[in-house]
Here is the input.
Amino acid sequence: MSALPAWPYPRLVAHRGAGKLAPENTLAAFRLGYAHGYRMAEFDVKLSADGVAFLLHDGTLDRTTSGRGRADALSWRELSQLDAGAWHSPAYAGETLPTLAAVARWALASGVAVNIEIKPTPGRERETGAAVALDAQSLWAGADVMPLLSSFSEVALAAAREAVPVLPCALLGDQIPDDWRARVARLGCIAVDLDHALLTAARIDEFHAAGLRVAAWTVNEPARVAELLVWGVDSIITDAVDVIPPR
Ligand code: G3P
Ligand code: MG
Here is the structure.
């Protein structure tokens, strides 16, 4: 059994800030997750046309902002004018898209650990991975707990690791490929971050035996959270911040 890498993170993580209770990936969502006691948040980061790292899940602006089209077609100045809250509910009208820098300031001031999911727009994987890692290194310089970087894109993760080898990273997956050992070793990941439906007690033991931490997303049923905790999962990412007590 390999020794497990350091994992200075809370066990429960608020997905996109506060799940579906507030507009995802906004400061309003992070504040609501915090109000429910969560001290770690996951969020999605991509680049504007002019290379500013900002928070947005989708590749396009349509679902969660007042904008239209590809998210990387606009400059940060243009993106900063969009409404990122009205789509959710009237109470959040006027909420803006945050930069990674704004979220870093809030997280450091609030003592909240972060999982930065690198979510590049198609074709910008390498550039996004490198830029987000470099930003994270400088924004969190000297912090007690550094961000955990994660991505479904192995190209983005490889670029992040190349740019800043010291930042911990996790390979996201909605399947477990047969060659998972080689993939995580090549990327230098300390964790796998998987669709929770893929996990069993035996699978978690297998990853731990390989020296990897295990994160699970997106778990919204208290009974499933309890089961995964008994099996020794290292992180659980949840939308249900109002139902599942943080740990
Ligand atoms: O980081 C885990 C989870 O957020 C991955 O899926 O689509 O919600 O970003 P998604
Ligand atoms: Mg995500």
